[in-house]
Design goal:
Blueprint lengths: L7 H25 L6 H9 L3 H21 L22
Helix pairs in contact: 1-2, 1-3
């Protein structure tokens, strides 16, 4: 099971939403009682489980991003850097 997301921005926004839902549920319990617990499923969805699952997903997202960057995936095709003529070794006679 993968806990990561397609982009780091989406993952961080989901984490922010999850933490805010948890904090709001705890803060509003005094006034709303059990109705504040309705925010817990929102937090579980946003965090893809618990905060530890979100953290594992963060590392998965970072690793997959680095892997895609190194292999050139996601850019249409892998590109190689071309060396200008000035840095190619000259043949000596």
């Amino acid at each position: 099971m993968s806990f990561g997301n397609a982009s780091i921005t989406i993952h961080l926004l989901r984490g922010l939403l999850g933490i805010l839902a948890l904090l709001l549920a705890a803060w509003s319990y005094k006034w709303l009682g059990l109705f504040s617990l309705l925010l817990l499923p929102v937090a579980l969805w946003a965090l893809k489980g618990c905060p530890l699952c979100w953290t594992v997903g963060l590392f998965e997202t970072l690793i997959s991003r680095k892997t895609r960057h190194e292999t050139g995936e996601g850019e249409g095709k892998a590109t190689t850097r071309q060396c200008p003529d000035a840095c190619t070794p000259r043949q000596t006679q």
